[in-house]
Specification:
- Helix content is 48%, strand content 15%.
- It is an alpha+beta fold.
- The chain has 2 domains: 18-107 and 150-180, no CATH class; 112-148, no CATH class.
- Strands 3-4-5 form a 3-stranded antiparallel sheet, with no helix packed on it.
Amino acid sequence: MAKKITVRLDEKEIKKLSKQLKKMSEKIKNAEPQILNELADIAFDEINKNYSKAEKQPAEEMDFFKNGSIDTYRVGMRGTQAIYSEFGTGTRGEAHQHPKKNDFGLNPYNSGRTIRKATTHVADKTGIPEGELYWTYKDGNGEIQYTQGVEAQKIVYDASKTVRNKINNIIRKRVKEALEEW
């Protein structure tokens, strides 16, 4: 990638070099949108892949998005259970926390409306240990289900780690391509 530039030290040659450097700078600047778009594509694909492997929430409706243009992209997921899927809920969410959960001011337990302690009757019926917290919800068939929540799935967080791991190689590749054209 190293390119040797030889120039005579006279006004005409220096002006010529200055024009060439401006062209090179423009080519690198023009690579920025490609870099951002490629990183946004990677993030979007990773979020979809991570979600496909994640434990799903009851009645979960999820939408994945990539929007923006040229210099700004937003990539993520949204839906009725998105925050719970990302950050986890209940006892299971507390036991397997999201590394950034405290950065968002979320309730430590992230759970259903009525949290109860399991009695002997509940423990025998559900397998939730006596004295542990749980809540209930109605499934799609209207039947009551018992839950202690779900582990943090870290869908977006893990996608962001993948992007951070790839960013330098993508920048190098795109800048190299821009300079090869020069």
